[in-house]
Amino acid sequence: YVPPQVRKAQETLDDKKREELGRLKKMVNGLINRLSEPNLSSISGQMEELYMANSRKDMNETLTDILMNACVTPVAMPARLMMEHVLLVSVLHHNVGIEVGAHFLEAVVKKFDELCKSDAEGKECENLLALIAHLYNFHVVHCLLIFDILKKLVSIFTEKEIELVLFLLKNVGFSLRKDDALALKELITEAQRKANTAEKKLQDQTRVRFMLETMLALRNNDMRKIPGYDPEPVEKLRKLQRTLVHSSSGKETQLRVSLESLLSADQVGRWWIVGSSWSGAPMINDTNSKTQQKLRVGKVSSKIMELARKQRMNTDIRRSIFCVLMTCEDFLDAFEKLLR
Q: Of 101, 131, 212, 314, which residue is 20 to 30 A from 262 by alpha carbon distance?
């Protein structure tokens, strides 16, 4: 039972919160709408001030919602616009804290996984993949995630997936080669094997041949073979990023997280964000039960147990440590038993 006066106070609090969030959304939306390369510096500065003035959770959720609405559209987004949006996330990720990039990345990856499973006709998948690719280009996420996505797409190997693989390789292929040439080589081998064992109608497609040619061009480091490949815009924005990021930690803030971890974050917690330990994580429960089982191993006389009770050793761990100290022969024996 909630008394009427408390109920009233809660309702006014909720209204106040809703109003605050609405105002915050309006401000962030205004900044995102004006976003362009020349004013990126001032907008990222204003966003940092908003992060300092409001709760991180509210800011992360508001920013992610607005960016997703702006970038994930049924028509293909202009590459330049996409890069500027991701660059803003990257600057905030480095200057404010890694939870900014982590929150946005998780939302993008979950949406991408959801749309991949459904037969969406629009260009939403490409737009989401472009967001992930540029998050990698601007050092928010490690190449591990990109390889996970590529492996997943190659393992399914239908027309839609081939299109997405080509799109991703065109955006980040040469960066992947620089970061992990061996993993790229393994991926190319797997794609060739898939293409050889694919159905006849897929094998004859020029798209598949084009994908394999693109992969070989990547392996041989031949940029001319990839039509429309232009590293210039990304390089230009990377230079801008270096001027905007306060700290010099480029690689340390990269989120080294796999696709599986991101998709199962609700079940196993988010280990990649500092301070987000989670009591519901199965790993934590397992270790507790294991230690308790181990503690009961080894018989101790009832006299020692009585002493432990008198000394108020009221938990299993305390009793076990007390018994070990009282019954061991020397310090080495004590050390061994305590370790066990």
A: 212
CA neighbor of 124 nearest in space, from 83, 159, 160, 153: 160
SS3 141: strand
Q: Which residues contact 153 (CB under 8 A, 6 or more apart)?
A: 161, 164, 165, 168
For the domain made up of 4-264, the CATH class stated in words is: mainly alpha
User: What is the tens place of the pLDDT at every residue in 254-280?
Assistant: 888 888 888 888 887 887 887 665 656
Distance CA 217, CA 213 (A): 6
Domain residue limits, the chain: 4-264, 302-339
C-alpha span between 240 and 41 (Å, rounded): 9
The closest alpha carbon to 173, from 90, 127, 231, belongs to: 231
- Give me the residues paired with residue 255 across strands: 141
**3-21: pLDDT as tens digits:** 888 777 777 878 888 888 8
In order, the DSSP letters of 163-220 are HHHHHHHHHHHHHHHHH-HHHHHHHHHHHHHHHHHS-HHHHT-HHHHHHHHHHHHHHT
Task: Match 């507790």 to its residue by tokens.
Answer: 288
